[in-house]
Design goal:
Elements lengths: L1 H20 L48 H12 L10 E9 L5 E9 L10 H13 L6 E3 L2 E3 L1 E10 L2 E6 L1
Antiparallel strand pairs: 1-2, 1-5, 3-4, 5-6
């Protein structure tokens, strides 16, 4: 079973490598599906990456959440700082994706939300603004390295919301 798994991973890496090399340098398309390109209207100009062309996707990390003190600290931060409005009864899921650079700093935050039926949904700004503010304030993202040095990587948080309150934070 392990040999099959390693073989499939090798095939995926080969395909990914071929895809990266087949995109013209001046292409308007991103090199990988899901890449977060810099947007001057949304992003902090002071946030920089070590290697713009080699940001690790979270599914390539082979590890869990990359946060110091892991999930407990992260959950505690949101539970203590998020203030639900009892008049807001929104339910569904909110995903915030972002990049952690080679220094452990975060940037290029993107939010998408849906109902529990997975159809796009707009949540009340009182919820999304709080979640984004808390996420941006998080300190303690781990620096990932390999034999060539520190790496940039993608991270995400998914918030399950019921009646305007956080019920669960994934991953």
């Amino acid at each position: 079973m392990r040999k099959i798994y390693l073989f499939l991973i090798s095939i995926l890496i080969l395909i990914q490598s071929c895809q990266q090399h087949s995109i013209p340098k001046n292409s308007k398309y991103l090199s990988m599906v899901g890449d977060i390109d810099y947007d001057a209207k949304l992003d902090d100009t002071n946030f920089t990456l070590c290697n713009e062309k080699n940001t690790k996707q979270y599914h390539n990390l082979n590890e869990e959440l990359q946060y110091e003190d892991e999930k407990y600290t992260l959950n505690h931060t949101f539970i203590s700082q998020f203030k639900p409005d009892p008049t807001i009864k929104d339910s569904g899921m909110i995903r915030i994706r972002f990049i952690v650079n080679c220094k452990g700093e975060t940037g290029r935050f993107r939010l998408i939300s849906s109902g529990y039926d997975y159809k796009e949904k707009q949540f009340d700004k009182a919820i999304t603004d709080q979640l984004m503010t808390i996420t941006k304030s998080l300190k303690g993202w781990k620096i990932l390295s390999d034999k060539r040095g520190p790496k940039d990587y993608y991270q995400y948080l998914i918030f399950k919301i019921s009646d305007g309150q956080i019920k669960e934070i994934l991953p």
